[in-house]
Write a structure and sequence with these properties.
The chain is an alpha/beta fold. The chain has 15 helices and 16 strands. The strands form three sheets. A seven-stranded mixed β-sheet has the order 1-5-6-7-2-3-4. It has a seven-stranded mixed β-sheet with strand order 10-9-11-12-8-13-16, sandwiched between helices. A two-stranded antiparallel ribbon has the order 14-15.
């Protein structure tokens, strides 16, 4: 449960792109180190947040260990250690964060969740969602950063190639049905849904969302946040939404039988429903829905599109380098491309390509020495067709459905990733960090 927002905005220095050489210390890192040495706790906390904003971090982790406290940022989906500070000042740091987010300072035995707002000097508003967790060494603090002024990217900007964009656009034009996005936490599912909703958001349709929490506020949408502690759940919210005369409904997550059953009823009564679900691939989503107790005939008649997605880091275009992978990797890449069932998507040049890109060993000033900057999505989109619907009704195995889906237009996460690696957008190492390998 979120606590009430702190009404006093905390001033955080403005964020600017790194201009110093990768080998030289960042000025804001120096400021943070100086605040640690001087024991200036309020300044130290603000510097922690400010430096995280500059590095485009999504999460701040403050982790007490046996002798020191470790500060780490999650940057482009990967954890990166920043500094360590003495254990004796950690209680004061935790107290400062708790004061900012309206949490109980004297309660250290149980986890707490809260939120606060910070404003940069260039008037950017950030929402910090704070979570504390008691550990054997003290309280761990995680702050998730959400930029309230962030622009919703259009679907092609997310990394959708023309083929996948065409499949998704066709599904968004449907008058009713269920569209699902799936993937682990932090894979960009919510951003994809908001990007889709921004295309559907016109004055002649009523769009209602049920979320936990409302991450991005968008004009034109009727957005509602669930509160499970008072029994306002996704299923209850979805049932209520149906009495609000909606055309399109977005449900934050499908977690149980009641929610998916209500979503199916909404689809059957003429509504377009968008939601997320936790599985590893598009095909496994069908198995998950079956496990939730939905009969095959309802699955086949209501589900129109399933998107599985991941986020991989973009190579820094200023310092990326070319290389030739080992033969086993080249064989794996060739096999993945040969199994693409979409005509014209894979060229002969792609099949014979032996040169790929990877990150520079030491990076550069542009990427702050990491070798990567920003992220791009990998997409596996399964659009329902009569063949797949018949297989669902016949209770075919997931493996059999996957083969037919690939022959009729589905590009797997691995295949989409390999094609992006050939274009130099990311590295093969990044692709195989998140995507399942096709068996050789």
């Amino acid at each position: 449960m979120d606590t009430q927002q702190d009404t006093t905005n905390q001033a955080v220095p403005e964020t600017t792109p790194p201009t110093v050489a990768a080998t030289q210390p960042n000025p804001k890192l120096v400021q943070l180190q100086e605040a640690i040495l001087s024991g200036n706790i309020p300044q130290m906390v603000l510097n922690i947040i400010s430096y995280a904003l500059e590095l485009r971090s999504s999460d701040i982790h403050i982790e007490p260990e046996t002798n020191t406290v470790r500060l780490r940022y999650r940057i482009d989906g990967v954890m990166r250690q920043i500094v360590e500070y003495p254990l004796n000042i950690h209680p004061a740091v935790v107290s400062r964060v708790k004061i900012m987010s309206n949490l109980k300072i004297d309660e250290q035995r149980i986890p707490q969740d809260g939120r606060c707002e910070v404003t940069t000097r260039d008037n950017k508003e950030m929402d910090l969602r704070v979570s504390t967790l008691p550990t054997v060494n003290g309280e761990k603090v995680v702050m998730r950063i959400q930029d309230k002024s962030r622009k919703i990217p259009d679907l092609p900007e997310l990394g959708l190639d023309p083929h996948n964009f065409k499949l998704l656009s066709a599904a968004l034009d449907l008058p009713n049905g269920i569209l699902l996005t799936t993937g682990p936490t932090g894979s960009g599912k919510t951003t994809t849904l908001y990007s889709a909703l921004s295309r559907l958001n016109t004055v002649d349709v009523n769009i209602l969302t049920i979320e936990d929490p409302v991450e991005i506020q968008m004009d034109g949408l009727n957005q509602s946040q669930v509160h499970p502690d008072i029994d306002y759940t996704f299923a209850y919210g979805l049932r209520t939404a149906l009495r609000q005369d909606p055309d399109i409904i977005m449900v934050g997550e499908i977690r149980d039988h009641e929610t998916i059953q209500t979503a199916i009823e909404a689809s059957l009564t003429g509504h377009l429903v968008l939601s997320t679900i936790h599985t590893n691939s598009a095909i496994e989503t069908l198995t998950r829905i079956d496990n939730l107790g939905i009969p095959p005939f309802l699955m086949a008649s209501t589900i129109e599109l399933i998107i599985a997605q991941r986020l991989v880091r973009r190579l820094c275009t200023s310092c990326r380098v070319q290389y030739e992978p080992d033969q086993e990797t080249l064989d794996r890449v060739k096999k993945a491309l040969e199994n693409v069932g979409v005509e014209g998507l894979v060229t002969q040049e792609m099949l014979t390509n032996r040169v790929f890109w990877k990150e520079s060993e030491h990076g550069c000033a542009e990427c702050d020495g990491i070798g990567y900057k920003g992220r791009v999505g990998l997409y596996e989109i399964m659009s329902m067709n009569n063949q797949i619907r018949k297989m669902i009704l016949d209770k075919a195995s997931a493996l059999e459905i996957e083969k037919v889906a690939m022959k009729t237009g589905m590009v797997t996460l691995e295949q989409d990733g390999v094609m992006k690696a050939i274009k130099g957008l990311t590295s093969l190492e990044e692709i195989y960090r998140v995507a399942k390998r096709m068996e050789l």
